Amino acid sequence: MLAGGLAGAAVAAFDPLSRGWVSVAEAREGGVPGSVAVPDLDGVLVTDPASLAGAADDFGHVVHRAPVAVLRPASVRDMVRMVGYANRHRIEVAMRGQGHATFGQAQVRAGVVVDSRTLAAIDHIERHAAAVDAGVRWLDLARATVAHGLTPPVFTDYVGLSVGGTLSGAGIGGTTQHYGFQADNVRELDVVTGDGRLRRCSPSHDPRLFNAVLGGLGQFAIILRATIPLVPAPEKARGYQLFYSELDTYLGDQRRLLAEGRFSSLQGQVARTADDSGWELFIDAAAYYSSPHRPDDAALLAGLSFDPARTIITEYGYLDWVNRLAPTVELLKQIGAWSLPHPWLDVFLPASHTQRLVAGVLAELTPADVGHGPVLLYPFSTRRLHRPFAEVPHEPVAFLFSLLRTAVPPTPDVIARMMAGNRLIYEQARDAGGKRYPIGSVRMSPEDWRDHYGPHWPAFAAAKARYDPRRILTPGQGIFTTP
C-alpha cells in the first residue's frame, strides 16, 4: 500500500532529470516522462509541507535542511526497498529517531528522511536479551523489561531517545563506568547497508560490519533491529548528590569512585553557587539495590571530601531513577524552553588535561553562555569501550564535558556566539587529545573529521566505500562532504 490513507501527499515516482518527486495525483494525470516508479511499500512516502518541515528541524533548532520526502516505513521490507531505490538513483537518506539531534545530523537536504517512529516494536524479551526495532524508545524498553525483572545495562540521562539513534552515536550514561557505551552492549543487529542489502551481524557473524555500525554515526548502514543484553533489574536506587567547591578535589574524588566502582551509577555536574557568584560541582551518583539489602551510606561516602552539610540523599524506585529527568523535561516543555535552540557542546577530555581545560572554560563561562542549561562533568573508563569508530581519548580515564546550552533569547547573534564558543572549546580539547562526542553542535569540515578519526580514518573511509559506495547515508554529519 503506497499511500496509507494519505494519497494526496504521497509519492508515486522519482524524476531523475529534475531530481524531484512525482505525486500520486500527478501520476494519475499522466505522470512525468522518464520518471521511475517508487517501489511498492507497506508504509508511505510523503511530501506534504508539515512532514517536510518536521524532518527539517531537530531539538537543536539551529540547522534546517528540508528533505524532499519522508518515509514512514511499516516493515523491514520497506527499508530495504527504499534504501536500494535511493542507492540506484543517488538519493541521500537518513534515519530520524526522536529528533533529538542538535545540529542537523539526521537531516537531508533534498533527500529522504526515514521516520523510525513507525518501526517501534519490542519483538520479544527473553531471560538474557530483548530484540527491538530501531525506533523503540529506551524508556519504553525499560518499562517492558523491568516488568520481567530485567533491564538494559546502560541508559542515557534522557530516555526518550530511540535505540537506533543512540547505538549509532555511542550512548553514554551513569553506568558506562561498569558496562561501557550502549553501543558496547549489543548482541546482534539487523541493518540495511547503503547499497540496499539487508544484513544480520554480530560479534561472531560479520563482525567487521557489526563494529562499524555501532558508533558509526549512520555512515555505513541504517539500524533496523537490535538485540540488547539484559541484566537483573534492581528494585530501587538510592541517589547521592555530593557538593564540592574546588575542581581539583571534585575530580580527585570522581576518579577514586570510578577506580573503586562504589556506585552503580556515577555522574556529575557543574552548577552556579546559591549566591550566583561562581561555580560549584556535585557528584550525582546512585547505588542500586533490592530488598532486603540496603546501601551502606558510611561505606559509600568514606574518605570523600564533599561538603557534608549540603549532601542530598534521595530514594527512588528503579524506573523512577531511570526516568528521573521526566519532571524537568515536562516543566521545560510547559514554559517553552524545550522548543528553544540548543547548540550543545559535548566533548571527551583526557583525564590528564581535564582540570586545566575545565578550569579555563569555567573562568570565562557565564550563565548567559549556557542559557542556564546544565553542565555535565563525569569520568568513565575507556578500557570498557570496544567500538573502533566511537572515538575517545587515548588514556585509561576520560571525562565527558558537556555544555547543554539553551539560546536565551533565541536570536541569531546569541546562537552564533554559542556556536563560536563551542568551536573554541572543541579545538582546545582536540589539541589536548580530546575527542568530540558527535551529538552536539560544532561546525566540522571533512578535514576536521579526518583529524577526529586520526589513525582510524583509513578504516573508516574503507568501510564507507564498502558498505555505502555511493555515499547516500546520513550526509548531515558532514563527514565526507559539507552538508
Task: Using brief descriptors, characterize the structure shown.
483 residues, Uridine Diphospho-n-acetylenolpyruvylglucosamine Reductase, domain 3, 29% helix, 22 strands, 3 domains, Uridine Diphospho-n-acetylenolpyruvylglucosamine Reductase, domain 2, disordered N terminus, alpha+beta, eight-stranded antiparallel sheet, 16 helices, Vanillyl-alcohol Oxidase, Chain A, domain 3
Describe the overall structure:
The chain has 483 residues and is of the alpha+beta class. The protein has 3 domains: 7-117, Uridine Diphospho-n-acetylenolpyruvylglucosamine Reductase, domain 2, CATH 3.30.43; 122-233, Uridine Diphospho-n-acetylenolpyruvylglucosamine Reductase, domain 3 (2-Layer Sandwich), CATH 3.30.465.10; 236-436, 3-Layer(aba) Sandwich (Vanillyl-alcohol Oxidase, Chain A, domain 3), CATH 3.40.462.10. The protein is built from 16 helices and 22 strands. Strands 18-15-17-16-20-21-19-22 form an 8-stranded antiparallel β-sheet. Strands 8-9-13-11-12 form a 5-stranded antiparallel β-sheet, sandwiched between helices. Strands 4-5-7-6 form a 4-stranded mixed β-sheet, with helices on both faces. Strand 11 (188-193) and strand 12 form a beta hairpin. The longest helix is centred in the C-terminal third of the chain and has 20 residues, at 412-431. Mean pLDDT is 94; it is low at 1-8.
